[in-house]
Amino acid sequence: MKKAIFFDIDGTLIDASKGMIHLSDRVRKALQALKNAGDYIFIASGRPLDFLDPELVNFGFNGFVLMNGAVVVIEDKVIFSEAIDKSIIKDIVSTCERMKIEYILQSHPKVYLKTNFKRMENFYISFKIDVNKFEREFNPDDLQVYKMEFQTADARTDVASIYKKWLNSPELTGIVDPFHRNNMEIYSRKNSKGSGILHALKYLGIAVKNSYAFGDGFNDLEMIQTVGCGMAMGNGNSKLKRLAKHVVPSVYEDGVAYGIEHYILKAAIE
Q: Which element (helix H / strand E) includes 149?
C-alpha cells in the first residue's frame, strides 16, 4: 500500500536560522528509502517555490504543498490553487505604501519584491534565500497572490494595530514575529497545510490513514492533525508535541530520519 509523507522545512528538514542549510546524509538516505519503497514524499511549507533551496527542489520530491496549502503541485502539475481576493490585496498594498511597510507578494511560481525594499531583501538573505530569483518590476493588480509578508524598521504602535486588523479579518490569518513584532505574514484563512494535504491525497487516491507528516511549528498544527500519523520534532512547540502521535528527536539529531526508520519503514516490514 503506497503512502504519502509530508515534510515541513525549517526546523524539520533543516534549520537555516542556525546555519543548518543542507539535508544531513542520514535524512537524505531515509527520504530515498521511502522513494525506493514506492511511497510519495512531499514538501509542505509556508514558503513559496522561489524560497526553496535548489537542493530541496531537485532532490526528487513528488510534490509541494506551498504557502500553507494555497498551492499544491504534484509532479510539476498544479493540482490546486486559490489566491487571495484581489480587492483585499489592493487594499493591503495601498496601506503598506501609505505607512511605509515593506512587503513581498508571493505568487506561483514567482515572488515579487520592490528593488528599494532592502530591509526585506536582507531578511531573506539572512535565511540563505536567493533573492536574485525575485521579480522586481510588477503591477500588483496583475498578480495572483497567495501570501504576503511584511517588515518595518520597528514595532510602531500604528503598524501593530494594522497587523492586528489583518489578523482579525474573516478572510485572512497569519503570524506576527513574537520577538520583534515588526515582521508578519498573512495568508488565506480558507487554506492550511492540512487542506493542501487533503487535496494531494485525493488526487493520488491515497487514504488519510496512509499519510504521515513531520513538523515543528505553529503552521504545522493542521497538518499534524490531518494525517494518519503526525510526528513532531523534538525542537517543536509544546502544543504540536501534545497533538502528535509521536515525538521524534530534534532536527539537529536527524529526527526525520529516526521517524522514517522507526514509524514508517519498520512498520511496513512488520
A: strand 147-151
